[in-house]
Fold:
Amino acid sequence: MNAPTRPENLAPFGEDYGPLLTGPFAPLSDESTLTDLPLLKGAIPKDLNGVYMRAGPNARYAPQGRYHPFDGDGMVHAAHFENGRLTVRNRWVRTEGCQREDAAGRATYWGIRETLLGREDKPLKDTGNTDLVAHAGKVLALWYMSGEAWELDPITLETLGRSQAIAQTGGKISAHAKVDEITEDLLFFDYGHDAPYMHYGVVGPDGQLKHHVPIPLPGARLPHDMAVTEHYSILHDLPVMHDPEAMALGRHKVVFRADMTSRFGVIPRYGKTEELRWFDFSPCFLYHVVNAWEEIDARGRWITMVGCRYMPVTRPDGSIDEQRTAKDIAELVMHARLWRWRMNLDTGATEEQCLDAGHNLEFPSYNSALTGRRTRYGYFVDHSDDVILQWAGLRKCDLDTGATLSAWRDDPTQSWYSEPWFAAADHPQSEDHGYVIAFQWNAAEQRQTLDIFDARDLGAGPVAQVLIPRHIPTGFHGCWFAASRLKPRAAA
Structure:
């Protein structure tokens, strides 16, 4: 895998621990609150009110053994917009592991290249560094390998403690939970090494657990995302799993099985285990869903799901190279295409279609107020084919046709954008009436900015660009917490 050259002023811990801890990946050593930041272009829109947040890895101590981005302690960077004013903050997610290492003054946990969850001799830390979910007036910091949900204050970013609703399940929560912003239900799943291997649940708008059922799988899997519609949830059983020999030795190694199908399980939102229905599709991995919704046509009732299909590596004869595919998945080397899957609830028929074969699109967002309802627009990063987690540009696509509607690239070889999020304008007049927000690091100029685009036309460039006087490390997922949702909704 390729990585950027390390700038001299971004080398952590006094020595070089490899490319994933230097350059755009270099961690910060402190927390800050920044106001009155200079504008390089435009002005902060006054009809943009809420908080854009992005999670990512930020190692606090020199690692034990080899380092992977999933190992770094969670750090949240947030841009709080209020009536034309902007405050930028960064805070660590103070998980139990983070607090223990603080007390020790050094790294006491190991990374996923060295160990597995559950080993006592080489403990693996739940970092809360992967995704952020806005729900019930709080933000949940989540971990990709299915861990605990850590509640944060959406303004101060203070870590408030564990989510008691998730703790009540006796299990964990995967990174990609979904929130239906119309009902304020939080839909989630977990996965693990022991039967039934997956669970599915719902937390209500009051933050209380409403529903939790087992989802039996044929064996342990490594799913990453899920989808929801107005009445259903879609769970993923993909042909990606731990290598059994490595697992027996307590090591993490991913296997891709080309002889297995990808299965999507459709369950009513509050459904029982026996109501779950599986639909088979071509073998693939799926890191991230865009959105899903219900449709009716002459052939019956359909579930439509649009996402970024991780394209398996193929040999010259067209067969899947399982080893190279698994290696790419493990090392976050992404080659994804915008894809549509459809499931007929009446006949059991399935359909799948590539919507855009020409662009490596990942880390999607959309108007989250329409989660589970039909959306036309998706916003993506143009993912580098060669450099992991380098996103040189942003792209708006039509989710019906896959066509690019507008795109922006600042400096294709030097720009490192964060996951862009759509933020509706106050009193929006259309689905795409609002803004797309992303942090950008320019490696050549050593310049950090916050870029704000008119979501109706990314190609016009930022309507506002704010200079941030410190580097923001490359990270993972974010969310938009609209001002109207910052206070929890009362229980019905």
Summary: The two ends are 51 Å apart (CA to CA).
